[in-house]
Amino acid sequence: MAKIATFAVAVLLALVASASTGNVEQPAGSIEARIQTVEDMAAFKAAHSNLKLVPMDLFRGPRNQFIYTFGSRVAGDSLVAYLQYSWGPEDTPFDYHLMLGYPQSGQGSVVSFVQVIVNQSSALGQAYVVAGGVGQRYIQVLVEAFDTTFFNSYTEVFGTG
Predict the structure, then answer these.
(1) What residue numbers bound the domain in which 43 lies?
(2) How far, in Å, CA of 56 to CA of 77, rounded?
(3) Cis omega before residue 93 (within 30°)?
(4) How many CA atoms lie within 13 A of 137 on its CB side?
(5) Cβ count near 19 (within 10 Å)
(6) What CA–CA distance (Å, rounded) separates 126 from 36?
(7) Model-wide pTM > 0.85
(8) What dihedral do alpha carbons 16, 22, 24, 28 form, nearest 10°?
(9) Are 9 and 31 in contact (CB under 8 A)?
(10) In a 10 Å sphere around its CB, with 0-12 CB exposed, 13-18 middle and 19+ buried, how is residue 140 labelled?
(11) Tens digits of residue pLDDT in 42-88
(12) Domain count, the chain
């Protein structure tokens, strides 16, 4: 049976300077994260058969660092939300699934680019967009880390409007 821990994380405020007016704005969005430990991946996929998994681009860094991206930066976009999350270390490796959603509630900015940087103990992982996406006002991302004893991630969402 899957162990599930759920929490919502408010965005840490970041200052973004406006080049045209010199004003300083703060991102209004937040990212929701749900951490799931999945013991039976086939059962997890069967329970979530309505999810459409669109693979994110993957760039491999040193020492089991994964940099997942989706979309591209555009003129006028800015950081609208970010989240840092760490888990572990644990004695026994697990397969972990991190579900990220922007915005946490209400209507967000139009998403242009998402980047998730993950450091973990194993060299096995992947990430998908499962709902929303670039050009929409919401996005959900599933990040998977397999056979890992620790997981550190930093997620950024950029958008306009």
Answers:
(1) 3-160
(2) 20
(3) no
(4) 7
(5) 7
(6) 15
(7) no
(8) -70
(9) yes
(10) middle
(11) 777 788 777 778 999 999 988 999 999 999 999 999 999 999 988 88
(12) 1
| Ranges under pLDDT 50 in the chain | 1-28
Residue identified by tokens 């003129």 is: 75
Tokens of 3: 């162990």
Please give, one letter per residue, the 3-state secondary structure of the chain.
CCEEEEEEECCCCCCEECCCCCCEECCCCCEEEEEEECCCHHHHHHHCCCCCCEECEEEECCCCEEEEEEECCCCCCEEEEEEEEEECCCCCCEEEEEEEEECCCCCCCEEEEEEEEEEECCCCEEEEEEEECCCCCCEEEEEEEEEECCEEEEEEEEEEC
